[in-house]
Design brief:
The protein has about 160 residues and is α+β, with helices and mostly antiparallel strands. It has four helices and eight strands; from the N terminus they run αββαβαβββββα.
């Protein structure tokens, strides 16, 4: 999944801190709104796929310290640390295999053969570096490198199945 240059820079500072604390960085997003900047970090315990409030506070303190030293953002910003949640973003190519069989929404910056850029359907895994998804219109194969967004869709089935991941 593509990150902005700022998100890449923030990730390079945050990932080692988060990993040293025993967690996995899922994604970093920056949002500019109302003249301010928000940095959203999603992380989880690799064993449980969860992140508690105390864990988020540890990550926030660790990352804040590094950001204060490195000063990667011009001006003030707000830092938010959370779990990716059940309807998590799909950021790594492996996510599309791990969550095969789940419903997802994905977007590509390059249209598929039928001109479609947005897809909603059931993940069917991978074919090499291509993501497979079955939609109401049929099956699509989208190169991972073309994806700009990916997210699981909340459903009762997702809640039941992710409880056992």
């Amino acid at each position: 999944m593509r990150l902005t240059p700022l998100e890449q820079r923030l990730s390079s500072f945050a990932a080692p801190v988060i990993e040293d604390l025993g967690f996995a960085l899922i994604c970093i997003k920056t949002i500019s709104e109302d003249g301010g900047q928000t940095v959203q970090i999603m992380a989880e315990d690799p064993a449980t796929k969860k992140l508690g409030v105390d864990d988020a506070a540890k990550i926030s303190r660790g990352v804040s310290t590094v950001f204060d030293v490195e000063d990667p953002i011009n001006g003030a910003y707000r830092l938010e640390v959370s779990s990716p949640g059940i309807d998590r973003p799909l950021m790594q190519i492996e996510d599309f295999k791990t969550y095969e069989g789940f419903e997802a929404k994905i977007e590509s910056d390059i249209p598929a053969e039928n001109g479609q850029k947005k897809f909603r359907g059931i993940l069917k895994g991978l074919n090499g570096e291509n993501v497979l998804i079955k939609t109401d219109e049929g099956e699509a194969e989208i190169p991972f490198e073309n994806l700009t967004k990916g997210k699981l869709v909340m459903s009762d089935e997702l809640i039941k199945r992710t409880a056992n991941l």
